[in-house]
Inverse folding.
């Protein structure tokens, strides 16, 4: 009886402590002002969007074809990030004075003088600096867990509505949604992501993302962030936060609707481990197996679809190319953002897969910054990585598993920013 009373008191203390952290946070001077809070809320709300202006220069073309990856782009989220940085300039400046941050900036700049295209490298270098600065701001800025989840929920509701329309009508909505980043879509356009089941072909929804895989990865990370930070497994609904539950449901729906097989498999595996290690096994074994069965059944339905039959061959070919590029520049790499320029030496075997980076964030990073800088970064943050794996394994493996088979965590605006935001809140 005494043990139960002590346990209840400890739970109450932990709850009060976590709430105080969530609501008061690690505050910087003036971080609680209305302007800062509103700007931060707006930044998180618009993270899934990609309204931006591309600037195409001579170096943005490969064989006469303009390539978005090589075009410096100013996004709306960049402007909001700049506003956050300016309002927290002292915090950012103090953060950038830290030894580890200075070493990171040095390692990333080592190959600037030898980059194949210096303007592209400088642009990508600025993007890394931006994410580090946003990380510094969010790490020290107070935002309630409720406001954070509400902003993510509104963005997810918007993406779900748009994605459902694209899926049902097999085309994009356009109109005002163009300004949120929706690209023109229909089944007749070349290079559009499609899927088919039992002879019926349909469009894989993009939402406001550049590709359905990017959309899936984005909401996979949000799903496990919310699941491990703001939700508790129980047999009843009452112990769940409503906003968290709805956000988890919408994130799951977007993952399945994307028909991204790698993401669905990662979602399935990590959920199995999470459920098996949860208290649900002790509280209600039937509930545990029921949830596992439902997840397995739904996942199997979506995994039965066929999309690009040559997808694996394309990824293997790109991986081979990346290893050749690394062997050609084994010390300093080809330069940040210069991977596609280096890959131009290889013949294009797939007409619908032109100018794509290697679908592996580790091979991509090693090819661009070189093995020396890559190993240096791993050694520099080895202790932090160990803590991340122990404390937030599901978030870590969500990025790791998808990062082994795609490149969007480093090449696409929404995913790159989200990764910095989530790590900052952790």
């Amino acid at each position: 009886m005494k043990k139960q009373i002590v346990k209840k008191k400890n739970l109450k203390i932990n709850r009060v402590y976590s709430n105080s952290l969530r609501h008061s946070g690690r505050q910087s001077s003036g971080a609680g002002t209305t302007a800062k809070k509103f700007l931060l809320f707006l930044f998180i709300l618009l993270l899934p969007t990609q309204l931006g202006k591309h600037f195409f220069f001579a170096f943005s073309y490969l064989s006469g074809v303009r390539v978005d990856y090589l075009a410096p782009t100013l996004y709306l989220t960049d402007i909001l990030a700049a506003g956050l940085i300016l309002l927290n300039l002292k915090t950012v400046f103090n953060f950038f004075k830290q030894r580890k941050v200075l070493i990171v900036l040095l390692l990333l700049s080592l190959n600037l003088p030898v980059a194949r295209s210096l303007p592209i490298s400088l642009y990508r270098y600025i993007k890394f600096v931006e994410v580090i600065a946003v990380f510094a701001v969010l790490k020290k800025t107070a935002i309630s867990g409720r406001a954070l989840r509400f902003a993510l929920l509104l963005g997810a509701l918007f993406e779900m509505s748009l994605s459902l329309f694209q899926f049902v009508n097999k085309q994009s909505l356009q109109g005002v949604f163009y300004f949120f980043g929706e690209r023109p879509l229909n089944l007749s356009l070349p290079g559009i992501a499609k899927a088919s089941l039992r002879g019926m072909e349909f469009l894989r929804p993009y939402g406001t993302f550049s590709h359905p895989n990017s959309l899936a990865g984005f909401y996979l990370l949000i799903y496990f962030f919310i699941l491990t930070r703001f939700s508790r497994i129980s047999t009843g609904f009452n112990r769940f936060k409503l906003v968290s539950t709805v956000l988890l449901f919408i994130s799951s729906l977007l993952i399945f609707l994307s028909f991204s097989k790698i993401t669905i498999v990662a979602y399935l595996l990590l959920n199995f481990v999470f459920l098996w290690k949860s208290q649900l096994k002790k509280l209600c074994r039937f509930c545990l197996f029921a949830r596992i069965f439902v997840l397995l059944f739904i996942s199997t339905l979506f995994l039965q679809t066929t999309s690009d039959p040559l997808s694996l061959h394309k990824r293997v070919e790109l991986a081979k190319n990346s290893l050749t590029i690394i062997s050609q520049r084994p010390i300093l790499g080809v330069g940040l953002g210069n991977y596609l320029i280096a890959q131009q030496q290889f013949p294009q075997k797939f007409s619908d897969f032109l100018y794509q980076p290697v679908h592996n964030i580790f091979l991509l990073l090693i090819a661009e910054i070189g093995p020396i800088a890559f190993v240096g970064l791993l050694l520099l943050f080895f202790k932090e990585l160990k803590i991340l794996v122990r404390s937030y394994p599901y978030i870590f493996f969500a990025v790791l598993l998808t990062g082994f088979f795609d490149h969007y965590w480093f090449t696409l605006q929404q995913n790159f920013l989200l990764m910095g935001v989530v790590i900052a809140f952790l």
